[in-house]
Amino acid sequence: MWCSEHEPPTPHLEFERKSSQIFRGDTVKLECDIDGDNWTYTLQCGDKKYNSKDENDFEITVELTQSCKCKVCRGSVCSEWSNAVNLTVSDNPIVTVKPQSSVFTGDTVTLICDVRRSTGRTIYWFKNYNRTKAVSATVTLREVRVSDGGRYSCAVQNKTTQSQGVELTVRERPKPVVRVQPDGRVSRGQTVTLSCDIQQTDVINWRYSWNKDNSEIHVSQSQEYRISSVNESHTGDYSCTGRETGGSRYSHTSDKVTLTVSGKESCDTVYSKLKIKGEVN
């Protein structure tokens, strides 16, 4: 237990290691450990300082090899700096995938090998640990197929260590199905609901575009498009397309579904109007 008139004990800085190597851009967690509470924590890594009230753990993004240390304060009284923790950033290449690592068939994917200080040297690419023919820092895969999926990594000529692998997942581009409720043939005044059903994907959120006679008429996050009190002008061919919210993927366009609205009002519609007017008991 620490008394306020004495200098506080020296904290201990711990590094929570998730893998054997740290790559540029990785996020690491450091914990400034000391007994007691109501501390203000300061972490210093290289020239940067991070402060936290009450929370003793820090998550930082590492760009360079650097040494980190921490101290605690309560009021104007501060501890000595803790032990140093060295964050050594691997000099191995880094692979990035654009636009993203999960795509659909037919998309274009760019693989980039960031070699940092090895600019100008020959680059080797590997797919599922087997060397490919590509030798440039940037590789573009056009109209990808499911078979293009796999683990991609790169290495610099005369260096034995490969980059971390990046998993490219290629799935078949889905095709939505349009469903119509209550039916594709309705009478004037009825309510019609069109739903855009997209199956077998890992996309969490879609943004749905609706077309009528090949012209876009509605875009929303809801897979349903509702038309209240239809009339003859709503007759036409309807289709939909899904686009990933916050991503680059999109579906095929669905097959067209024809909605036909007759000029005669349905019995249900007539009954509802009469009931509203109080003409039906």
From TrEMBL:
<dbReference type="InterPro" id="IPR003598">
    <property type="entry name" value="Ig_sub2"/>
</dbReference>
<dbReference type="InterPro" id="IPR007110">
    <property type="entry name" value="Ig-like_dom"/>
</dbReference>
<dbReference type="Pfam" id="PF13927">
    <property type="entry name" value="Ig_3"/>
</dbReference>
<dbReference type="InterPro" id="IPR036179">
    <property type="entry name" value="Ig-like_dom_sf"/>
</dbReference>
<keyword id="KW-1015">Disulfide bond</keyword>
<dbReference type="Pfam" id="PF13895">
    <property type="entry name" value="Ig_2"/>
</dbReference>
<dbReference type="GO" id="GO:0004888">
    <property type="term" value="F:transmembrane signaling receptor activity"/>
</dbReference>
<feature type="domain" description="Ig-like">
    <location>
        <begin position="93"/>
        <end position="169"/>
    </location>
</feature>
<dbReference type="InterPro" id="IPR003599">
    <property type="entry name" value="Ig_sub"/>
</dbReference>
<dbReference type="InterPro" id="IPR013783">
    <property type="entry name" value="Ig-like_fold"/>
</dbReference>
<dbReference type="InterPro" id="IPR050488">
    <property type="entry name" value="Ig_Fc_receptor"/>
</dbReference>
<keyword id="KW-0732">Signal</keyword>
<dbReference type="GO" id="GO:0009897">
    <property type="term" value="C:external side of plasma membrane"/>
</dbReference>
<dbReference type="GO" id="GO:0006955">
    <property type="term" value="P:immune response"/>
</dbReference>
<feature type="domain" description="Ig-like">
    <location>
        <begin position="174"/>
        <end position="258"/>
    </location>
</feature>
<dbReference type="GO" id="GO:0007166">
    <property type="term" value="P:cell surface receptor signaling pathway"/>
</dbReference>
<protein>
    <submittedName>
        <fullName>B-cell receptor CD22-like</fullName>
    </submittedName>
</protein>
